[in-house]
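Quick check before the chapter quiz. The format below is the same one you will see on the exam, so make sure you can read both the input and the output lines.
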Amino acid sequence: MLIRTLLSLAFLSLLTGTLEAKDDPFVGKWQLNRAKSNLTGMQLKIEDLGANKYKITNGDVSTTITADGTDQNDQFGDTVSIAPKGSTNWRMVIKRGGKVVSSMTHTLLPDGVTQTIKGTDNKPDGSTSDYEVELKRVGGGTGWSGTWEEVKERDASSHELDIEGYEDTGLTFKSPDYADTVSMKFDGKDYKEAGPDEASGGLFSGKRADEHSLELTFKMKDQIIENRRYLVSPDGRTLTITTHQSGQPHDQVSVYDKL
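Here is the expected output.
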């Protein structure tokens, strides 16, 4: 899903003047530099509602799920299932259009303040990508209940980003990992994502401040999910993307090197 690698940002002023695609510093292939990036800090809130029912909140997005192993709809058209494996393990599966896009195991560690997530993403080409996340409890709570903050993350995706010129003044963003594409102009209008696993109802809009900076906004069903600021260094070799997910206390910073 392109939301993993690009999308979204609050509006700035419209770009004055035009750039030929060959001269645009954003155009090219970019590779994530993990050593220079800060991708942790996201928070996940879990509330135990009783009767094996839980409210799970990520930023401003909440889903209530009964942990009985059945597929249940979220507000954006995907399905989520949670199958408890004892008191300290959850098996969670996320489907889009009936197809599994991600499956994972949540584990509560004996210290009571650490939760791990080990999972696998299924890519459109049939390949898979494993990932691991470690979260620490922030504040109070027992068992699954509480606010959890991501402190470590690892995944096997390439995190390559391809950017091409689109028509006169626009850009096309491509995520090779998930075969997703967004072609857009920076006029504040909404543009749809294209790809086999694109989020239903997901729209992108953006504005460009100058030659080296732009901002994008990603929303689902009129709800803003993410805002991102893209900045290319003066020498054109580094792309920094600062992501703010609505309702999250910390921003994530992704630094890309030009290939």
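If your answer matched, good. Confidence is low (pLDDT under 50) at residues 1-19.
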